[in-house]
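W.,

You were right to be curious about this one. When I first looked at the sequence I had no strong expectations either way, so I just let the prediction run and decided to look at it fresh. Below is the sequence, 151 residues in total, followed by the output.
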Amino acid sequence: MSIVPNFPHQKDTAKRAEPVDRLTVARAELAAPTPEQLEIRRRTRLAKWSQIITLLFVTLELGILFRVVLKLIAANPASPFAQFMYQMTELFLAPFAGLTATPAVNGSVLEIPALIAMAAYGALYLLVMRIMWVTFNPAKARDAAKYEPDL
């Protein structure tokens, strides 16, 4: 036997609420989304697009990195993996072709234009992400109204 005080402000848990028609509640929620729900949906879509863009840029950066390493260790260009990496990254490195000299020693090649391309695509990624978040996630006036300066 346990002794639990019954305070006047507590609700009686023994009473059961009437059953709720879940279908009616679900339809009502779908019919009129609240501003908070709309904000959550918008931010979720924006986050999903951010993830997709990040995946594309990371894949590109890794492809170029693999190419630089394969050239640096003088990998066999007839290898299927090396051919795939060279063909996949050729299009993205075309704007940087001939930008600087490419030092080579005993078959090892240091592709400086590929390293510059990695830096350029990294900067482009940061720029695209920033523009996307600033454009589609603007500061709200209500957020500014919440600000209380320290006095």
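Here's what jumped out at me. The mean pLDDT is 83. And, maybe more interesting for your project: The CA atoms of residues 4 and 128 lie 60 Å apart.

Coffee later to discuss?

I.
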